[in-house]
Amino acid sequence: MTDGRTPAPRPHLTGWLGTVLDSPDPQALARFYRELLGWPLDTDTPQWCTIPVPGARANLAFQREDDYHRPVWPGRPGEQRMMSHLDVGARDLAAAVAHAEAAGATLAAHQPQDDVRVMLDPDGHPFCLYVDAG
Fold it and tell me: Which of 12, 13, 23, 91 sits a CA distance of 20 to 30 A from 72?
């Protein structure tokens, strides 16, 4: 048993992790996140795009979903809800919001915290910009 902070060996896993967002246009969404994060595209096809996370065994990927329905924020009964969201650390929250908006994001109408800004990417996926003090 571990203390919860020390990784436990999992010899059957590689340690690589990816997050995938559905999109009606993965290339356009990947280009938005490339501009937002400043990380280069790796795979870039009409069906599948990836952005490796620098210095990590991880990537952010985008896959085509022809029957994509934009999520609503905050969630409402009977509406498509978000399944997950990305948190992006910022040193200067106002500058990060301005940069995200210039890249194509919109500021969500509902803002539940003073030190976090909920943004919507061009496909409506919520992501949070937050003050990263560490």
Answer: 91
Pick the closest to residue 122 from 52, 26, 20 (CA basis).
26
Q: How far apart are CA 97 and CA 129, in angstroms?
A: 7
Radius of gyration of the chain (CA): 16
Q: Write the single-letter amino acid at 30.
A: A
Burial class (CB in 10 A: 0-12, 13-18, 19+), 15: exposed
Q: How far is CA 104 from CA 9, 28, 50, 107, in A?
A: 41, 10, 19, 10
89: tokens are 């650390």
* DSSP labels, 8-60: PP-TT--S-EEEEEEES-HHHHHHHHHHHH-PPP--B-SSEEEEEPTTSSEEE
pLDDT digits (tens, 9 = 90+) for 8-46: 888 898 889 999 999 999 999 999 999 999 999 999 999
**How much is the pLDDT for 81?**
75
pLDDT in tens, 63-112: 999 999 988 878 778 877 767 889 999 999 999 999 999 999 999 999 99
Give CA–CA dist 99/9, Å, rounded.
40
